[in-house]
Amino acid sequence: MRNALLRIRGVITRGAITRGAIACALLLVATSSHAAEVSGSGLTLGPADSKNVLILHASNSVQVFKGVLEDFSQLNPDVRLEYTELSTQQLYGDTIDRAQANPTALHGPDLIISSAMDLQTKLVNDGYARVHVSPETRALPAWANWRDEVFSIGTDPIVMVYNTGKLAATRVPHTRRELLSLLQAPDQPLANSISTYDVQGSGIGYLAATQDTRLDSMAGALLAAFGRNGVTIHESTEDALDKLERGDVTLAYNLLESYTRHRIDQGAPLAIIYPQDYTLMLSRSAIIPKQAPRADLGARLLDYLLSPRGQEMLAKQSGMRRVNASVVPAAGVRPMALGVGLLVYLDPLKKRHFLDLWRAAILPPGGSARPADPAALPR
C-alpha cells in the first residue's frame, strides 16, 4: 500500500492525472485489502490484518457461494472471512476428529454448512453443536430448526429430469407409479437409459433413497425395476446431467433442481418433473460447532443467511429456494424435517441392511451397475 501511495504522489507532482482519477486510485488502494482471494476450493475476503477472523467450511461450491459471501463481506468490512469447500463426509468426519483430538480446544470452523442434513443432525444429536437463538432463527418454520442447533438456510427440490429429445411428452411420468409403469412397459423405453444415485458413495443419494423407503411403499419395486432396466449409477447431479445432455440416458431419478435449472437456462434439452405424489425438499443446513473459536461471527453469518437479504442472495446466486417460500406448484411438497427422523438410517445395522437390499435390487448378479465418474464428489 505504501508503494502505491508513493506512485500516486509522484503522479500528482507531475500533474499527469485529473482530480477524478486521483480519487479513483485512492479508492483502489483503500479497498485492496478487501479483495477476494480465490483458490481451487477456497475463498478469502476482508482485511488481512483483521482481528475478527470468521472460518466457514461448507459443501457449497466456491463459484456458487462467492456472490453471497461477497455481499456479507461488504456488510461486515471489519471481518476477514476464510471459506473452504469440503465434501459432506469430510465436514462430518473432521468435526468428530477435532473433538476427539482435543475436546476442550477452540479450533476449526465457526460455521459448517452441508447438504447432508442427516449428518448435520447427527452432529447435533451427538453434542457437537452450539445453541443459537435470534429473531432470524425464531422465524424459521418448525421443520427448518431443530433444538436451536441446526438450521435450514435454503431448500432444493429433489426431482426427476429427462431429455426432451428422447422421451415423448405423452409418456413422461408424473408420479413414481407412472415411472414404474414406464419401466415395465413392453417396449422398454428406458432400458439401459435410466440413471440414479450410487447411494454407496453419495450422501445426498443415500439420504434421498432412504427417505423414499420411509415414505413410499413402492420404493422396493421401483429399485427392482431400475435393476431390470440396466440402470446407470451416478455420484453427483452434475454427472447425471452430463449423461442426460449427451443423450447417454433418457431419464434420471432424484436430482437436485438448482443444478438442473442452471443447465436448462444454458440451453440443455432437459425438462424437470416434480413428482406429484410427493416432492422431497432437501435442505442446506448449518450448525455452529461447539469448538468454534468465534461462535459470535458464525452466528452473525448464519443470521445474515437467514435474513431477507441473505435469502434473496442465496436464491439469486445458488438457485436454492428461500426457506419460507419452499413451494413447488402442483406437487405434494415434503420438506425433509431436521430432527431425529433423519437418524434412522444412520444406525450402522440399518444402513448395512439398506445397502444390502439396494445392491441386490440395482446391481446385476455377479457384477455392478455402470458407475458414474469416480472423481465426482457428493455435495
Please, could you describe this protein's structure?
- It is built from 14 helices and 13 strands.
- It is globular, with a radius of gyration of 24 Å.
- Helix 1 packs antiparallel against helix 2 and helix 7 packs parallel to helix 9 (219-228).
- With 379 residues, the protein is α/β, with parallel strands linked by helices.
- Mean pLDDT is 85; it is low at 1-33 and 369-379.
- The two termini are 39 Å apart.
- Strands 1, 2, 3, 4, 5, 6, 7, 8, 9, 10, 11, 12 and 13 form a 13-stranded mixed sheet that branches.
- The protein folds into 2 domains: 37-155 and 283-342, Periplasmic binding protein-like II (D-Maltodextrin-Binding Protein, domain 2, 3-Layer(aba) Sandwich); 156-281 and 343-362, D-Maltodextrin-Binding Protein, domain 2 (3-Layer(aba) Sandwich), CATH 3.40.190.10.
Search tags:
D-Maltodextrin-Binding Protein, domain 2; disordered C terminus; disordered N terminus; ABC transporter substrate-binding protein; 2 domains; 41% helix; alpha/beta; 13-stranded mixed beta sheet; 18% strand; globular; 379 residues; signal
Major sheet = 13 strands, mixed
Which regions have little confidence, pLDDT < 50, spanning 5+ residues? 1-33, 369-379
CATH superfamily of the largest domain: Periplasmic binding protein-like II
Known CATH architecture of the largest domain = 3-Layer(aba) Sandwich
Nearest-integer average pLDDT:
85
Category by helix and strand content: alpha/beta
Under CATH at level 1, the class of the largest domain stands as: Alpha Beta
Classify the beta-strand content into a percent band: 15-25%
Helix content: 40-55%
Order of helices and strands: HHEEEHEHEHHEEHEHHEHEHEEHHEH
Can you tell me the overall shape? globular
Q: Which fold name fills CATH's third level, the topology of the largest domain?
A: D-Maltodextrin-Binding Protein, domain 2
Separate helix tally:
14
